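User: I'm designing a mutation panel for ABC transporter substrate-binding protein and want to avoid disrupting the core. Could you give me a predicted structure to guide residue selection? Please restate the sequence first so the numbering is unambiguous.

Assistant: Good idea. Sequence first, for numbering, then the predicted structure tokens:
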Amino acid sequence: MIALAALSAALTGCSAAASDDVEVVVGYQSKTINTVTAGTLLRATGFLERRLDELGRRTGKRYSVSWQDFSTGAPITAQMLAGKIDIGSMGDYPLLINGSRARGGDGTKLVSVTGYNQRGALNMVVSRPGSPVRELGDLAGKRVSTSVGSAAHGTLVQALRRAGAEVSVQNQEPAVGASTLESGGAEGLAQFVAWPGLLVFQGKARPVYDGAELDVPTLHGVVARDEVIEERPEVLDAFLKAQFDATRYLHEDPLRSARQVADATGLPPEVVYLYNGAGGQVTFDPTIKPGQREALAADVPFLKEISALQELDLGSFIDDGPLRAAYGDRYDADAAGTANPSPIRGTDPVCGAEVRDPATAGEVWLSDEDSTSPAVSPTCLLRQIRQAETQGRAVRAAYVPDALTGTRWFADKATWVRDPAASPESRFVPFATPASARRYQAEHLGAVEVGYRDAIGEA
């Protein structure tokens, strides 16, 4: 909400016109790291405050920002409906629910996108290490924790329907679900970024299902109250331009940005960089793309089915007018593209070739380096790791793309396959899940699964 800083909470709904002090309340999810350009990174860089200072010099008002951090999108929606948050960032399912529940009073609009994955890889299902559950069908009849009404829940339901399986769903917030999985209270956990990567990195889970197998875009976006859009458009304009600032900042130096987000959230920087790094799982682009509109329209029937949403006029809920005005002439051209603006670049130091194909490119992050080095292929990445270890240098993290879905994953947590029919530079093929590896093997006779350490030794 835009409120008078001097008034009590009971009077925050009063008009800001009576004072030169204007408070902008932003709801965000610090650990949902594909919203960072409208949340954690935006807050850490101070871009919004600077944009509002510029606005204040033009209007003569004094603007301040109140940042409110939540673990999921649902409480942000509740606070927006109560008029206590002006602008919020959340996932695709929660933002649709937000628009539906706000339609009876002061409405809300989707005004920009933060981060997205074109295939849906931002949601995953994981199981405990050592569990007999290795693929989605193994969860049939078992307990799975998820946040009902979230995109992760939607991914779980759609994937189970394709697999012809049913599970017992436990509705829990991500942190609670993670504890439930670890304690054995659930056999599976379906959650959104960054929880799957975090738990796998910590050795507390292993991937069972990659949301990219659905091949449906998943996204997070920014929702604003109609009161802000209609009565305080200059504030929304400042917010959107600050989001552009944060997006450019992230693209210019993804590793620096990942470290800042890690410092602010307590998440390991290696996990943040998995998602937000160069060529990461998350593509940061504020434009609202045609495919994303279609994906949101396809989400509505499921949300109605679980009684999370009644009615929503998607055409009026999605409002890119303020975004177009702030963005400029390139809006339509950029909205039509889906290539990651921050790909992996550079020359592979071991194989000696320049990275050209994002579908095979990876990165190695050595513990004694403040930067990452590119790898043109997973096999070349393994060679880099072997060379580093031979020199006594430790590998902090290494990232490879799943050969079928493109999902970026930890090299040491991936399932590796040796394909003798492939060229020497492409001999070793990584996958985010065992199921993905088995599908590859079924189509490539002679391909066999190998351990990570064996793959390094043989590469």
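For picking mutation sites, this is relevant: The chain has a mean pLDDT of 93. DSSP finds 18 helices and 19 strands in the chain.
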